[in-house]
Amino acid sequence: MSESQQIKVVDAFDLDDELRSLLKPGEMLRDAHGRRHRLPRYFYEVPSHDSAVEIRLTPHFGINEFIFVDLREAQRLQQFPRYVPCAVRMLAFFLEQFRTAAGGSVHIAVNGGYRSPAHKMAIDGSPHMWGTAADIYRIGSSILKTKELIDRFNDVAEELSDDVVVMPYGHETGKTVDDHVHIDLGYLTVIPREISEDRMEVPQEHRPRFAFEERRKRERRVPVVAAEAEKTQ
């Protein structure tokens, strides 16, 4: 990630009133089983369409693939700058591994990545609202519309990690799927190390909490390792 690709991290409590009302940082939601989960507070700010395409979370996944929505998303959240929870990078990391195991390119559906709490498809505290779920409609040249394909790639996803949840093939809304593979990592939240965290859950007019997350590359560690090696000689 070059300097131009550094991602701004914002505390959603420091966004304007309309955005806070749509993103609902820190609010509690119940999932389909009645369990309560706290919505994410820290988001990546994506300033433009071009930057969304440019910024790579992994070698094969750009941040644009996780924020592609239609008119069912709140109008303000269709505009740039756009916001996506920081845990999306964990989802991208898993999908990179899934792509290798599946043996083909992975294509996320429209509305298949992050969906805000204001999205018309955002029901029952879905992990999509945490940026940790993806609906995949195609892998390589295979359109995922058959039980055979969905079962096959569900097995691939589950073999990669016990933390992954998929939906079986079927026609029951919200419980099964018949035209995509649903993968979610649960209710993860991520606080980038660059952010200055505190307990205040009110807007900070004079000291907004934001930072720029940097990719921690191997070459940055080499001088430290070399210095440690010299100390032991």
The profile of the biggest β sheet is: 5 strands, antiparallel
Q: How many structural domains does the protein architecture include?
A: 1
Radius of gyration (CA) equals 19 Å
Structural category: alpha+beta
Helix content: 10-25%
Care to describe what's here?
By secondary structure, the protein is of the alpha+beta class. It has one domain (3-232). Helices cover 23% and strands 20% of the residues. It contains five helices and 13 strands. The protein has helices spanning 17-23, 49-54, 88-102, 147-160, 222-232; strands at residues 7-11, 28-30, 36-38, 42-46, 56-58, 61-62, 82-85, 106-108, 133-139, 142-143, 165-166, 181-184, 210-213. The strands form four sheets. Strands 8, 9, 10, 11 and 12 form a five-stranded antiparallel sheet that branches. Strand 9 (133-139) and strand 10 (142-143) form a beta hairpin. The longest helix has 15 residues, at 88-102. The model has no long low-confidence stretch (mean pLDDT 89).
Condensed summary:
By secondary structure, this protein is of the alpha+beta class. Helices cover 23% and strands 20% of the residues.
Which key phrases capture this entry?
single chain, 233 residues, alpha+beta, five-stranded antiparallel beta sheet, globular
Secondary-structure blueprint:
Layout: E1 7-11, H1 17-23, E2 28-30, E3 36-38, E4 42-46, H2 49-54, E5 56-58, E6 61-62, E7 82-85, H3 88-102, E8 106-108, E9 133-139, E10 142-143, H4 147-160, E11 165-166, E12 181-184, E13 210-213, H5 222-232
Antiparallel strand pairs: 1-4, 1-13, 2-3, 4-7, 5-6, 8-9, 9-10, 9-12, 11-12
